[in-house]
Structures are given as structure tokens and as C-alpha cells.
Amino acid sequence: MRKTTALALLATGLIALGCGSGAADKASDSSGDNKASNASGDEAGAKAEDKPKTATIGQPARDGKFEFTVKSSKCGVAKIGSDMLGQKAQGQFCLVTINVKNIGKEAQMFDGSSQKAYAADGTEYSADSGAAIYANKNAETFLNDINPGNQVTGVVVFDIPKNVKLAKLELHDSMFSGGVDVALS
């Protein structure tokens, strides 16, 4: 019993440490005491603050080290891939074409499974990494390291019910980032 409790405390501590480090970074970026470093060394952060909180299709939106531009969104797709190799949707596939540019100073891994989609009522949908393999010829959205200044364009796939329409995306540079919203309608 004590071993289980100790493991639970350790896991909670590690999660808090991982989440807390991002919160501390955000707090230091927004505090008045850090104006000098923002003005000289963090121009990307200052530019991101100037942009609206919700972007639209075709408008760049930044989260962490990535600048996302949603190029298009197409729903109502029943199957992805070929007759021999492919995947059928449980409901319908929504294919979201996204350009991802690394605006940081070191390589950053883009993971399509860290992206989320939302219906108008707030229902959250996870990306379908298995279907994305068939939607992308070169696995652009599957654990792809992007070096500084480089960019990739790929398709993130969501399998949603047939009667649902997506209202927005929440795009993340990692599974721990705060994310940025992009309106789809």
C-alpha cells in the first residue's frame, strides 16, 4: 500500500513539475519585471502577444516555437487511403491542412496527436494519428522534427460524428503548451 502511495505522489510531482515549468515561463513572459528580456531577446513572444487570441483560416497563429497557418479544412470524408491500404471513418473524417513553421532557435517536434478540434458546443475531438498516416505521403504530422526556420505542410485528421461541424482548432507546439485557437467558420 505504501509503495502505491509513493508512486502516486511521485507521478503527481512529475506532472506538476512538467506543467509548472510551462506556467513559470508564461508568468515570466507576462510580468512587468521581465520587460528588458522581452524587448531584446524575445521578439517572437512580443509579436505573438500583438496578434488576436483566435486566428482564422489563412492567418498565422503562434504557440511556443511554432507558427501555424491553417490552409484548409474539409469534412465529410468517409475513407482515407487506397482500396488496399486505408482507413474508414467511424463517423466522418475532417482533413485539416496546416503549415507549421519553427520560429524557435532549436529543433522542435511536431506531433499531430497534440492537436485538438472543437464543435460549437465545446465538445473536444482528438486527432486520429492512424488515419493521418494515410492522408500524408511523408508522415508530415507524425512526430516530425522541424529545424529552426524550416516548415512543413501536412494534414491533421479528426474522426468526428457525421452530424457534427467543427468550429475551431486548438493547435499546440507540444502536448504541454497552452495552445492557440483557430476558428474554422
List key phrases describing it.
28% helix; single chain; 5-stranded mixed β-sheet; 11 strands; disordered N terminus; alpha+beta; 185 residues; Immunoglobulin-like; 4-stranded antiparallel β-sheet; 2 domains
Describe the protein:
By secondary structure, the chain is an alpha+beta fold. The protein has 2 domains: 1-41; 54-183, Immunoglobulin-like (Sandwich), CATH 2.60.40.1240. 28% of the residues lie in helices and 39% in strands. The strands form 3 sheets. A 5-stranded mixed β-sheet has the order 1-11-10-6-7, with no helix packed on it. The chain has a 4-stranded antiparallel β-sheet with strand order 2-3-4-9, covered by helices on one side. Strands 5-8 form a two-stranded antiparallel sheet. Strand 6 (116-119) and strand 7 form a beta hairpin. The longest helix is centred in the N-terminal third of the chain and has 29 residues, at 2-30. The protein starts with a helix and ends with a strand.
Q: Could you estimate the helical fraction of the residues in percent?
A: 25-40%
Query: The biggest beta sheet, please?
Result: 5 strands, mixed
Return the CATH topology of the largest domain: Immunoglobulin-like
First-residue to last-residue Cα separation:
52 Å
Count structural domains. Answer: 2
The count of helical stretches stands at 4
Name given to the CATH architecture of the largest domain: Sandwich
The gross shape turns out to be globular
State mean pLDDT (0 to 100 scale): 78
CATH class of the largest domain: Mainly Beta
List the helices and strands and how they pair.
Layout lengths: L1 H29 L4 H7 L1 H8 L3 E3 L4 E3 L2 E16 L4 E17 L5 E3 L5 E4 L4 E3 L2 H7 L8 E3 L4 E10 L5 E6 L8 E4 L2
Parallel strand pairs: 1-11
Antiparallel strand pairs: 2-3, 3-4, 4-9, 5-8, 6-7, 6-10, 10-11
